[in-house]
């Protein structure tokens, strides 16, 4: 398939360049491109052409493509640019969860206009989903699912599915419920098909290893689905009544999103910045962090001013300051990354039992003495040839490096663990601020010890 | 379900503490725990008890649990600790891909012993899978799938599935192939069920939006499956002959693994370190990096020694050095993280078109001048009250900060982009070494400018 794509890529590029959107729309249909590929094409067009292109596409193609657009903001703008009827027609084509996600991107009045143009029952379903926080199970779930009673036979179940199934897309299992719609179990379609036609559904049903409430955080949903290898996870209320289901594809998107967020936060990039953002947005999201960080580093390094006399006496310290600070920062960043990641993927039991801080303390003690010794030996070697370098400086370096690396590692594990216990996303413990702190400790240790032992 | 678990957790903990593995095995069966939960129990036992516990479990429970163990190394050790017959019996229970993954963890002779104890045909299948690199599509795929000819009716297809299907677990679609087993398309089970019984399979079949060759890297497989929302992706040879399939759950594990790797690499932790590793392993994986880094930082900061006279004349520079170096490091880390992440999630077209370097250059120019100006104003303010601080120092700071931030940002985007073009994982461009470089540039700029403008 991919080869085929490459050959037609050139033709598509031509049409993209020249903005010949009607031809482009035809090619898309001839090639029967996947919605994700169409979404890329849309994103490669400028805003004016985007609207024209979407208008030129058949409804079902356009709607699927818009839901696949990487930056949903852009998708919202595009939907808003269409007239409400066309917009409503697009929404009408979608599963209710995708529809809700799209409408979420719209200004309230635009959303209202489109909802008004939708069939009554559909608007009601979507309004229901819009009540849930975007980042919860409720925000991910679709209410479109198959539920049957346990007393049916496999054959009757399949007939029931033939009827219900036409309304629902992409289902992989059938939920078994009681008369008040409480979830009893699920029958995977493959089991249902290979089952004897007379087998009772209740006997085929497996208990569901995990269910979620609509208010559960999406990250938790992702953990459960991947932990239990579920193709879809049912959402139930406090009485076990089946409200909807979340499928693996939505969860994969969540996992990738959450991990992008973690990496960027650790690097001190606010989650607001979308990966494909313009430079203006990037400046807006990063400059505040950097400005705040300029302040904190300034405070850290102003420690050096307390030891002016010492530095003047031993200019070598100016060269050692960044070494001690930097090694602390790097050890701390390692501990931070490992701990944040550990929390992110740990199942709650393991997480509770994990003791990251003590582990990092030990690691810091070992790495610290090793690195401190190397640095000390280097200083001794230099002291042997340079009379202006006191041998005692090696002891200062050893202790400063060791101390800073221990503090950094322990802190790198402690901060995210604490944040997690407090219910805060540990990834906000950006290494940016950890390194500032290790700068401070590093300078204080190095210059303080130097003042005490060398002057 | 989860409440239920919590209540029994205490009882399980008791049995875990006291190592009463036989009772534990009974409880596991009474509760009908999911394999992932059993896997956690195994991991919480010490090695001796682990073996006894696995022996006490029914084969199918034990085998599923072992494949779910987070650290597959540990799973291999456990399997090795069992006698070959029991080991083979466990392997026999597994899908061939899980079986191959487990056997991969064994010493060659152990693997041979277990393969010898397996039924001939099964051993052949597994040996076939073992030929593929663990990190490729071939290493992920299972050869257990359903393939039918297109000329069957839906009803005949379902009958065919009833026969074939008993051998295969967790299938969500049926592949349609020609007489020489070349892939023509796929029919989702839900479509098959709701189809009219007389409909021809060839008409129900959808083209497969993506297929992979067995030698494709697992990261690429993950991208395709998530891009096209596929529950399983077929693996074909160069003639389009169907070799196997990769299901979403294996891909979710890959996505999480790859992203752990990215985060850790960015933080300068070698991929060898498993998240739940002992401190000894952590030291082994981190100390080499840090030692190498100690060397590079030493080189960077030795630049300061070239400017001894300047620093002695203006000790304030000692306090400004970490500011200039640190701000460069942080801006660079931001650019690095965004670029690495962008490459990781971009579909190949977008990736090729993205121009991260120019974008980061612009961002660096803007952030750099802004931060440089802030710092310069601060220096001017200090100069106003401290006669020993020359006003010209503000210009030095402005230019040094600006320059270092521009270099850092550009480099942070350029290095991973280059690595990616060279086919190297961009995430190895650890921020550890980027920051060392920005230290070097920062010191050189600050002290060089100071020497030129202040002396």
What do these coordinates show?
The structure is a homodimer of 455-residue chains. In chain A, β2 (173-177) and β3 form a beta hairpin. Chain A folds into three domains: 2-131, MgtE N-terminal domain-like (MgtE N-terminal fold, Alpha Horseshoe); 147-255, CBS-domain; 279-454, Tetracycline Repressor, domain 2, CATH 1.10.357.20. Chain A is 68% helix and 5% strand. The first copy, chain A, has 455 residues and is mostly helical. Chain A is built from 23 helices and five strands. The first copy, chain A, has helices spanning 2-18, 21-31, 35-44, 47-56, 59-68, 72-81, 84-93, 96-104, 108-116, 120-130, 137-140, 154-164, 189-194, 201-204, 218-227, 248-266, 279-302, 308-313, 316-345, 348-353, 356-385, 392-421, 431-454; strands at 147-149, 173-177, 183-188, 232-236, 242-247. Chain A has a three-stranded mixed beta sheet. A two-stranded antiparallel ribbon of chain A has the order 4-5. The longest helix of chain A has 30 residues, at 316-345. Chains A and B meet through α3, α12, α13, α15 and α16 of A and α3, α12, α13, α15 and α16 of B.
């Amino acid at each position: 398939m991919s080869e085929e794509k490459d050959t037609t890529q050139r033709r598509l590029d031509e049409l993209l360049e020249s903005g010949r959107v009607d031809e482009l729309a035809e090619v898309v249909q001839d090639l029967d491109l996947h919605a994700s590929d169409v979404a890329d094409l849309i994103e490669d067009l400028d805003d004016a052409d985007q609207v024209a292109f979407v208008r030129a596409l058949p409804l079902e193609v356009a709607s699927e493509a818009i839901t696949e657009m990487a930056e949903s903001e852009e998708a919202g703008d595009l939907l808003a640019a269409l007239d409400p009827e066309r917009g409503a027609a697009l929404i009408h084509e979608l599963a209710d969860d995708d529809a809700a996600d799209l409408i979420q991107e719209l200004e309230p009045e635009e959303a209202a206009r489109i909802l008004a143009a939708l069939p009554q029952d559909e608007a009601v379903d979507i309004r229901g989903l819009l009540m849930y926080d975007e980042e919860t199970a409720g925000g991910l779930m679709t209410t479109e699912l198959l539920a049957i009673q346990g007393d049916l036979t496999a054959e009757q179940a399949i007939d029931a599915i033939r009827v219900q199934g036409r309304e629902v897309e992409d289902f992989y299992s059938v939920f078994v419920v009681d008369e008040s719609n409480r979830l009893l179990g699920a029958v995977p379609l493959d089991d249902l098909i290979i089952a004897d036609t007379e087998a009772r559904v209740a006997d085929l049903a497996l208990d569901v290893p995990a269910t979620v409430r609509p208010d559960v955080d999406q990250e938790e949903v992702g953990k459960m689905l991947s932990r239990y290898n579920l193709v879809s996870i049912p959402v139930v209320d406090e009485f076990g009544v089946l409200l909807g289901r979340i499928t693996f594809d939505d969860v994969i998107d969540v996992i990738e999103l959450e991990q992008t967020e973690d990496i960027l936060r650790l690097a001190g990039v606010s989650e607001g910045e979308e990966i494909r953002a313009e430079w203006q947005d990037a400046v807006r999201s990063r400059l505040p962090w950097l400005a705040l960080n300029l302040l904190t580093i300034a405070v850290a390094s102003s420690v050096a001013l307390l030891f002016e006399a010492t530095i003047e006496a031993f200019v070598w310290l100016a060269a050692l300051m960044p070494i001690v600070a930097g090694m602390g920062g790097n050890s701390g960043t390692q501990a931070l990354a490992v701990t944040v990641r550990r929390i992110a993927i740990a199942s709650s039991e393991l997480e509770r039992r994990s003791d990251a801080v003590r582990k990092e303390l030990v690691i810091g003690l070992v790495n610290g003495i090793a690195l401190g010794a190397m640095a000390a030996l280097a200083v001794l070697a230099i002291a042997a040839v340079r009379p202006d370098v006191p041998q005692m400086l090696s002891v200062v370096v050893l202790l400063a490096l060791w101390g800073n690396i221990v503090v950094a590692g322990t802190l790198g594990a402690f901060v995210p663990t604490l944040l997690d216990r407090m219910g805060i996303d540990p990834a906000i413990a950006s290494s940016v601020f950890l390194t500032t702190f290790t700068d401070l400790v590093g300078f204080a240790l190095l210059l303080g010890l130097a003042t005490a032992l060398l002057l």
